Amino acid sequence: MNLTELLPVEYSCPWCGEPNETLIDPTGGDRQDYVEDCAACCRPSTISVRIDGGGVPTVVVEPES
């Protein structure tokens, strides 16, 4: 895997359930947390990314309070 490539990951908005996509930068570290607005309802969600030793991301999305 080329570590300079952004990894697209799909998730459902915790507010409205609509599908969204985020791009993960694997060079940002194996633990990343940020806030992103839903493309459909515009409400903010906290996105927590964990990248395993093989470069595979796991994403947990929660509503931003």
Give the arrangement of secondary structure elements:
Layout: E1 7-12, E2 19-24, E3 31-37, E4 44-51, E5 57-63
Antiparallel strand pairs: 1-2, 3-4, 4-5
What would your notes on this structure say?
The protein is mainly β and 65 residues long. The chain has a domain at 29-65. 0% of the residues lie in helices and 52% in strands. The chain contains no helices and 5 strands. The protein has strands at residues 7-12, 19-24, 31-37, 44-51, 57-63. The strands form 2 sheets. It has a 3-stranded antiparallel sheet with strand order 3-4-5, with no helix packed on it. A hairpin with a 6-residue loop joins strand 3 and strand 4. The protein is elongated and about 35 Å long.
Give a nutshell description of this structure.
The chain has strands at 7-12, 19-24, 31-37, 44-51, 57-63.
Please give the alpha-carbon distance between the first and last residues.
36 Å
The portion of residues assigned to helices is under 10%
What order do the SSEs take from the amino end to the carboxyl end, as H and E? EEEEE
In what order do the strands lie side by side in the largest sheet? 3-4-5
Radius of gyration: 12 Å
Q: What would you call the shape?
A: elongated
The proportion of strand residues reads over 45%
Oligomer: single chain
User: Can you summarize the main beta sheet?
Assistant: 3 strands, antiparallel
| Distinct helical segment count | 0
Rounded average pLDDT:
92
Uncertain spans: none
Class computed from helices, strands and strand pairing: mainly beta
Number of strands: 5
